[in-house]
């Protein structure tokens, strides 16, 4: 897939998928990287004409049967959207989810939606948005104007390659922006309620995704698995479930606004999730409730988990060395306390070891440059980016005041 995803227009790149439909797993991606690293001059590569590649059957065009098969799977997953007074504003942010999402909503007999016309045009320059990333509030600016005019209840945005999805609830004149952990918790809870007849259910989340999902799963007799960041690891887990027959997958998600309910694809997929979240909102509307009400009910029952993400950029070789030093220093000397919170466990994913009470246990995941510090009421994680000169600090705590606590924790590492 040729895509810059939700990144700025000057970015470009490709996503490479394996035969199972998931992004390449570690071993395969390392082989591809090795081939690329062996190239001295990309401009000196021999090329083959399109006609020759077609003659050699190395290019295959996908016809409508593929799209129709996919649509059938989504419709089987969602089944129906109940009639209600719910009004939705939807934007594809100049991406690929138009026309397929409107076509699916029509097929599911949901017609009370309005598409943001200015952003329904495929446009690699993203001319009508400051950000084409549904994680950013400003990505919803035009949709908010539409919702004010129509008094819509729910605003939905998909990123340009339609794998991520963000939502905003419009309740009593106020716009409530949901983060990826919250959306994931809402969808996980909904999938659990919708799959009660399935035995040995399992869900999967990334190691930097809030533990609210784990609390919801365990309270409802659903096994929750943690994997490294990247949906390819969720796809690998599904393959393991299928080969062992030990578990039936019902949902997977990451805090970075990626979700997947139906494993007929093996990557985060906003196209199947949009009708699911609309179905949930429609059912709630018929109960005179909103997604905000549902989120508050989940917090009341399972804990008021709050999240904050800090992303720090350090440019150049000096910046790279600084990021490496931050990780090295915190590995060499684990802090016993961070912002007044006592550290009770440290997970070092590079050493594949968890440390607690003077004892060690193995982390059964591939190596990754991540440090995670656990407290009685939450955790924080340090994770350098693999593609940019950035280091991220993820914070997930049970608290009513995440802002001040998160700032203290951020200052502890980046003062």
UniProtKB/TrEMBL annotation:
It catalyses: alpha-D-glucose 1-phosphate = alpha-D-glucose 6-phosphate. Residues 1-40, 71-169, 179-301 form the Alpha-D-phosphohexomutase alpha/beta/alpha domain. Keywords: Carbohydrate metabolism, Glucose metabolism, Isomerase, Magnesium, Metal-binding, Phosphoprotein. CDD domains: PGM2. The keyword tRNA processing does not apply. It is an enzyme of class 5 (isomerase). Signal peptide: none annotated. Pfam families: PGM_PMM_I, PGM_PMM_II, PGM_PMM_III, PGM_PMM_IV. Belongs to the phosphohexose mutase family. This is phosphoglucomutase (alpha-D-glucose-1,6-bisphosphate-dependent).
């Amino acid at each position: 897939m040729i895509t810059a995803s939700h990144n700025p227009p000057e970015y470009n790149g490709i996503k490479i998928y394996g035969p199972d439909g998931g992004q390449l797993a570690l071993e395969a991606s390392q082989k591809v990287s090795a081939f690329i690293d062996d190239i001295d001059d990309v401009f000196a590569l021999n090329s083959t004409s399109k006609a020759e590649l077609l003659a050699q059957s190395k290019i295959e065009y996908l016809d409508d049967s593929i799209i129709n098969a996919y649509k059938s799977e989504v419709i089987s997953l969602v089944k129906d959207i109940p009639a209600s007074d719910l009004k939705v504003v939807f934007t594809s942010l100049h991406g690929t989810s138009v026309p397929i999402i409107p076509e699916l909503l029509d097929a599911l007999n949901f017609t009370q939606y309005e598409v943001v016309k200015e952003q329904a045009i495929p446009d690699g320059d993203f001319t009508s948005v400051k950000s084409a990333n549904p994680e950013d509030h400003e990505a919803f600016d035009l949709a908010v104007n539409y919702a004010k005019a129509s008094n819509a209840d729910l605003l939905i945005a998909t990123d340009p390659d339609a794998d991520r999805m963000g939502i905003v609830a419009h309740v009593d004149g106020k716009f409530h922006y949901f983060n990826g952990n919250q959306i994931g918790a809402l969808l996980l809870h909904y999938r659990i309620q919708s799959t009660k007849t399935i035995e040995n259910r399992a869900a999967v989340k990334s190691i930097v995704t809030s533990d609210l999902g784990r609390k919801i799963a365990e309270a409802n007799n659903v096994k929750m698995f943690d994997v490294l960041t990247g949906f390819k690891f969720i796809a690998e887990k599904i393959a393991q479930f299928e080969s062992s027959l030990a578990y039936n997958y019902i949902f997977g998600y990451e805090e970075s606004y990626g979700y997947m309910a139906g494993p007929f694809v093996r990557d985060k997929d906003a196209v199947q999730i949009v009708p699911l979240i609309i179905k949930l909102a429609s059912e709630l509307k018929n109960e005179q409730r909103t997604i905000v009400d549902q989120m508050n009910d989940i917090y009341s029952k399972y804990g008021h988990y709050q999240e904050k993400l800090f992303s720090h950029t350090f440019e150049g070789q000096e910046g790279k060395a600084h990021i490496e030093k931050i990780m090295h220093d915190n590995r060499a000397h684990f802090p016993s306390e961070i912002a007044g919170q006592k550290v009770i466990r440290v997970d070092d994913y590079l050493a594949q070891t968890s440390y607690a009470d003077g004892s060690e246990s193995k982390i059964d995941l591939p190596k990754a440059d991540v440090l995670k510090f656990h407290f009685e009421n939450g955790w924080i994680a340090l994770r350098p980016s693999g593609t940019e000169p950035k280091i991220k600090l993820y914070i997930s705590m049970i608290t009513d005041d995440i802002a001040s606590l998160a700032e203290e924790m951020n200052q502890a590492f980046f003062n």
